[in-house]
């Protein structure tokens, strides 16, 4: 099970990690990096960083040639400019770890060093990729403010002052826009990852809930079926125990009922265990009983020695929906089982009435037993299960003592 979950949550790019930035891999798959340490650079990171370094060095070399050709710049200032440019090019390798610090430092450095212009552009782009827009706005705004002062201090001999300002403002805006576009693409991938993981989690929860509901339904079936069969066994075994001098025919009939009930209970138990093992629904195995099987249920109860009166007034018995008929059958079965355990010897009345559009009413009622009745322990789980069954079918179920001291279970089920 653990292996299956790991395979479900594994990133889809496992075989192409070299193609993704290390920061994105860390966000998509945090378990791939050890805690407390930064993720290792991928092949793509090394290629991009080396390309940025070459770009910064190329612009630095072009700026150095311009400084050497200019006669208005002192030699000491030109040397200082080139030293700062070399240090800035080396600092490009730190742009992933400290993007904000590097971009902030490059604002004053780029103002006094012409050879550091490429590094300033790279640092601004990296800041736009890795940090929110408010940081980019502060750094980019500072650079935009210093651009007029820079070209007033160092005018370009080939372009007019206004044209140079417009060019650098457009370059800065393009750099910021490109970096924000890359950041938005990464955030989109992260959001799609989160959505996929949420979908997998919700699907797993739905599957677990469906499995739990199926097992609860199977448990209810187990209680309803086996309780009825085992109660028959208990009644006939008790009769044989308290009447050892019963006629041979009656003993043989009771033994036959015990054998048949035990066989049915074992068969039902095998089917339920088979469903649990196979993971199928509770509709596997034999067809589930419906309202048409109510006569057979009453006949079995009478054969066990109970006094049962069946009052069935249904307009269209064949048109009863299967789910409603099955619920009605289980209610009658549980009611007869409880009456046999808690009110032996009484006459139980099972009433089923209704029709299409009117609903179906199922009632199981028994009077108060006469004499002392041995206490039979019960947890009331059967009545709780019946209430859940009726609620799931869209109906209601009521149970409790009657006015004459007996007990009644009454359910109303929809029949549209």
Automatic annotation (TrEMBL):
<feature type="compositionally biased region" description="Basic and acidic residues">
    <location>
        <begin position="407"/>
        <end position="416"/>
    </location>
</feature>
<feature type="transmembrane region" description="Helical">
    <location>
        <begin position="46"/>
        <end position="64"/>
    </location>
</feature>
<dbReference type="InterPro" id="IPR036890">
    <property type="entry name" value="HATPase_C_sf"/>
</dbReference>
<feature type="domain" description="Signal transduction histidine kinase subgroup 3 dimerisation and phosphoacceptor">
    <location>
        <begin position="215"/>
        <end position="279"/>
    </location>
</feature>
<feature type="transmembrane region" description="Helical">
    <location>
        <begin position="76"/>
        <end position="94"/>
    </location>
</feature>
<keyword id="KW-1133">Transmembrane helix</keyword>
<feature type="domain" description="Histidine kinase/HSP90-like ATPase">
    <location>
        <begin position="327"/>
        <end position="414"/>
    </location>
</feature>
<dbReference type="GO" id="GO:0016301">
    <property type="term" value="F:kinase activity"/>
</dbReference>
<keyword id="KW-0808">Transferase</keyword>
<keyword id="KW-0067">ATP-binding</keyword>
<feature type="transmembrane region" description="Helical">
    <location>
        <begin position="135"/>
        <end position="153"/>
    </location>
</feature>
<keyword id="KW-0597">Phosphoprotein</keyword>
<feature type="region of interest" description="Disordered">
    <location>
        <begin position="396"/>
        <end position="416"/>
    </location>
</feature>
<feature type="transmembrane region" description="Helical">
    <location>
        <begin position="159"/>
        <end position="181"/>
    </location>
</feature>
<keyword id="KW-0472">Membrane</keyword>
<protein>
    <recommendedName>
        <fullName>histidine kinase</fullName>
        <ecNumber>2.7.13.3</ecNumber>
    </recommendedName>
</protein>
<keyword id="KW-0418">Kinase</keyword>
<dbReference type="InterPro" id="IPR003594">
    <property type="entry name" value="HATPase_dom"/>
</dbReference>
<keyword id="KW-0812">Transmembrane</keyword>
<dbReference type="InterPro" id="IPR011712">
    <property type="entry name" value="Sig_transdc_His_kin_sub3_dim/P"/>
</dbReference>
<keyword id="KW-0547">Nucleotide-binding</keyword>
<dbReference type="InterPro" id="IPR050482">
    <property type="entry name" value="Sensor_HK_TwoCompSys"/>
</dbReference>
<keyword id="KW-0902">Two-component regulatory system</keyword>
<dbReference type="Pfam" id="PF07730">
    <property type="entry name" value="HisKA_3"/>
</dbReference>
<feature type="transmembrane region" description="Helical">
    <location>
        <begin position="100"/>
        <end position="128"/>
    </location>
</feature>
<dbReference type="Pfam" id="PF02518">
    <property type="entry name" value="HATPase_c"/>
</dbReference>
């Amino acid at each position: 099970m653990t292996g299956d979950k790991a395979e479900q949550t594994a990133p889809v790019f496992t075989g192409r990690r070299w193609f993704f930035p290390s920061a994105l891999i860390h966000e998509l798959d945090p378990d791939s990096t050890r805690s407390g340490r930064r993720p290792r650079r991928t092949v793509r990171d090394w290629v991009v960083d080396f390309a940025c370094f070459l770009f910064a060095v190329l612009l630095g070399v072009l700026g150095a040639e311009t400084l050497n050709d200019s006669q208005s710049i002192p030699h000491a200032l030109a040397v200082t400019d080139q030293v700062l440019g070399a240090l800035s090019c080396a600092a490009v390798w730190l742009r992933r770890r400290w993007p904000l610090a590097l971009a902030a430092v490059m604002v004053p450095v780029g103002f006094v060093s012409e050879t550091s212009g490429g590094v300033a552009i790279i640092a601004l782009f990296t800041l736009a990729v890795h940090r929110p827009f408010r940081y980019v706005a502060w750094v980019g705004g500072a650079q935009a403010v210093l651009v007029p002062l820079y070209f007033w201090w160092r005018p370009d001999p080939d372009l007019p002052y206004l044209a140079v300002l417009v060019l650098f403002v457009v370059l800065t805006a393009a750099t910021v826009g490109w970096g924000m576009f890359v950041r938005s693409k990464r955030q989109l991938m992260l959001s799609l990852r989160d959505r996929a993981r949420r979908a997998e989690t919700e699907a797993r929860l739905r599957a677990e809930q469906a499995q739990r509901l199926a097992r609860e339904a199977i448990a209810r079936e187990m209680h309803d079926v086996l309780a009825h069969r085992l109660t028959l066994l208990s009644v006939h075994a008790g009769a044989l125990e308290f009447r050892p001098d019963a006629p041979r025919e009656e003993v043989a009939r009771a033994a036959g009922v015990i054998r048949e009930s035990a066989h049915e209970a074992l068969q039902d138990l095998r089917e339920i265990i088979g469903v649990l093992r196979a993971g199928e629904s509770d509709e596997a195995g034999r067809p589930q009983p419906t309202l048409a099987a109510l006569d057979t249920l009453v006949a079995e109860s009478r054969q066990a020695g109970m006094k049962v009166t069946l009052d069935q007034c249904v307009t269209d018995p064949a048109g009863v929906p299967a789910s409603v008929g099955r619920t009605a059958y289980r209610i009658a079965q549980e009611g007869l089982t409880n009456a046999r355990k808690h009110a032996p010897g009484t006459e139980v009345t099972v009433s089923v009435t209704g029709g299409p559009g009117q609903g179906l009413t199922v009632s199981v009622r028994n009077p108060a037993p006469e004499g002392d009745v041995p206490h039979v322990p019960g947890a009331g789980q059967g009545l709780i299960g019946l209430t859940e069954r009726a609620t799931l079918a869209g109906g209601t179920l009521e149970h409790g003592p009657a006015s004459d001291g007996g007990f009644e279970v009454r359910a109303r089920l929809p029949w549209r």
